TrEMBL record:
PROSITE patterns the UniProt entry points to: SHMT (PS00096)
Similarity-based family: Belongs to the SHMT family.
Cofactor: pyridoxal 5'-phosphate
The Serine hydroxymethyltransferase-like domain, residue ranges: 19-120, 154-426
Record's protein name: Serine hydroxymethyltransferase
One matching Pfam family: SHMT
Compartment(s) where it occurs, according to its Swiss-Prot or TrEMBL record: Cytoplasm
Pathway: Amino-acid biosynthesis; glycine biosynthesis; glycine from L-serine: step 1/1; One-carbon metabolism; tetrahydrofolate interconversion
Catalyses which reaction(s): (6R)-5,10-methylene-5,6,7,8-tetrahydrofolate + glycine + H2O = (6S)-5,6,7,8-tetrahydrofolate + L-serine
N6-(pyridoxal phosphate)lysine: residues carrying this PTM: K273
Superkingdom, natural source: Bacteria
Protein residues bound to (6S)-5,6,7,8-tetrahydrofolate: L161, G165, H166, L167, E287
């Protein structure tokens, strides 16, 4: 019943789209075909349910609703209020958070909201108080300069990009590295693991206003109680960005000191990664910060994406089902199977393994850069992304690593055996790929030569697994 409803709904929607711009309808069909036929190992991607996807395609997209529930700058927001209230309520229940702000359009937006909330809450600025009473349009350039001075030079300590941190955690070229005076903590050069003693020492010396924890490419769990202790000792606000692992928190794989929500003053996240919701962001906060976070709009946001907030509510309702906990546990178990698959075949993993949803494969032992490995794998239908390893000799563009995550294929139903085969296929590709040469004949970090027949062999083996675990099994487009 549901299958045929979904099939006819999407088939008809594509017909409606094709009547206006057939090339977009065609690209949409092709995207489904491509996602169905490739081995998606990108650690930040997933497959949302048809209910979540469909919720995004409605007239809620047409409604402006700047402000907060019951306090909007536009008329006629009663249904958006229902949506936002439900999304926030599900989020608070799901994560046990005192307060949830579901308006951010993305993970980066969520982090900007959190940063400005911390500044507004913690930085004493008589000038800011005066400014808030004024019409912003009347501020002169000199006013802005004073404000920048009073707000500026606040300190932020975050995890470095090559240790697995995110751009928004103080990386120089990102706004977070410009609006804050930033320093970074890394991982232990021997073990690749977070060294809490070293983080504490750096925090004592640097005395940051904001301590950021969380990562995009660190294959281990973090003890957030320890991070909070460090923050408390130096009087910092602890902000945890759980964009990557929110699904493991929601699914109760990370509990106790591994659950950031009770320990962080503010927890930010995306909703589309392991959490398997629509593309978007969210901020969870302790009461102390709620009023500041609530001013996300107009502070850094404009109108919320009401259709996406609706889809967040649907996704959170799904994540509150017991089946989501089973899913999250499988995501972590499968990452272990993938890691074991590599280790038994002699490959090197950063930190020697994983205890979350991702592994970071160091491809230098294959004589390749991350860029070459990523391209060769793609030729064989294996979709990954290259990633720096700690102290990467090849820098952030070519890199020496490939990051692989299990959330997406776990949604398709892959288990232990399949992930062992995935490791086998990847090792097959990489050990049959040679680094190429530049036009001048020197070693190239980009070009590569994939051995004859390897792509065909690997594509055939992955097709067998993909056929056994189809994406959206009941969905047939006419
Ligand atoms: C993905 C990610 C983000 C950014 O999310 P977008 O929705 O792409 O803006 C922020 N922080 C971390 C840790 C992430 O992994």
């Amino acid at each position: 019943m549901t299958d045929s409803l979904i099939s006819s709904a999407y088939s008809q929607a594509l017909e409606v789209i094709a009547a206006v711009e057939p090339r977009i309808a065609e690209a949409t069909r092709q995207e489904l075909a491509d996602q169905r036929s490739s081995l998606k190992l990108i650690a930040s991607e997933n497959y949302a349910s048809p209910a979540v996807l469909m919720t995004m395609g409605t007239w809620f997209s047409d409604k402006y609703a700047e402000g907060t529930v019951g306090h909007r700058f536009y008329a006629g927001c009663q249904n958006v209020d229902t949506v936002e209230t439900l999304a926030a309520e599900h989020a608070r229940e799901l994560f046990g958070a005192p307060y949830a702000y579901v308006q951010p359009h993305s993970g980066i937006d969520a982090n900007l909201v959190a940063f400005w909330s911390i500044l507004a809450n913690k930085v004493e600025s008589p000038y800011l108080a005066r400014m808030q009473a004024k019409n912003v349009n009347e501020l002169s350039e000199a006013d802005w300069e004073t404000l920048r001075h009073e707000f500026g030079n606040q300190r932020l300590l975050g995890m470095s990009l090559d240790a697995g941190g995110h751009l928004t955690h103080g990386f120089r070229p990102n706004i977070s590295g410009k609006m804050f005076h930033q320093q970074q903590y890394g991982t232990d050069p021997e073990t690749g693991l977070l060294d809490y003693g070293a983080v504490a020492a750096k925090a004592r010396e640097f005395k940051p206003l904001v301590l950021v924890a969380g990562y995009s490419a660190y294959p281990r769990r973090v003890n957030f109680a320890k991070m909070r202790e460090i923050a408390d000792e130096v009087g910092a606000v602890l902000m945890v960005d759980m964009a990557h692992f929110a699904g493991l928190v929601a699914g109760k794989v990370f509990t106790g000191e591994e659950d950031p929500v009770p320990y962080a003053h503010l927890t930010t996240t995306t909703t589309h990664k392991s959490l398997r919701g629509p593309r978007g962001g969210m901020v969870l906060a302790q009461e102390e910060f709620a009023a500041d976070v609530d001013r996300g709009c107009p502070m850094v946001l404009g109108g919320p994406l009401s259709h996406v907030m609706a889809a967040k509510a649907v996704a959170f309702a799904e994540a509150r089902q017991p089946s989501f906990q089973t899913y999250a546990q499988k995501v972590a178990d499968n990452a272990k199977s993938l890691a074991e698959g590599f280790l038994t075949r002699g490959a090197n993993l950063v930190t020697g393994g994983t205890d979350n949803h991702l592994v970071l494969l160091d491809v230098s032992s294959f004589g390749l850069t991350g860029r070459q490995a990523e391209s060769a794998l793609l030729d064989a239908g294996v979709v990954t992304n290259r990633n720096s390893v700690p102290a990467d000799p090849n820098g952030a563009w070519y890199t020496s690593g490939v990051r692989l995550g299990t959330p997406a294929l776990t949604t398709r139903g892959f288990g232990h055996e399949e992930f062992d085969t995935v490791a086998e296929l990847i090792v097959d590709v990489l050990s049959n790929t040679e680094a190429g040469t530049t036009k001048a004949g020197g070693p190239s970090k980009a070009s590569y030569v994939l051995g004859d027949g390897v792509a065909d062999r690997v594509t055939k083996q992955s097709a067998e697994m993909l056929d056994k675990h189809p994406l959206y099994p009941g969905l047939v487009l006419s």
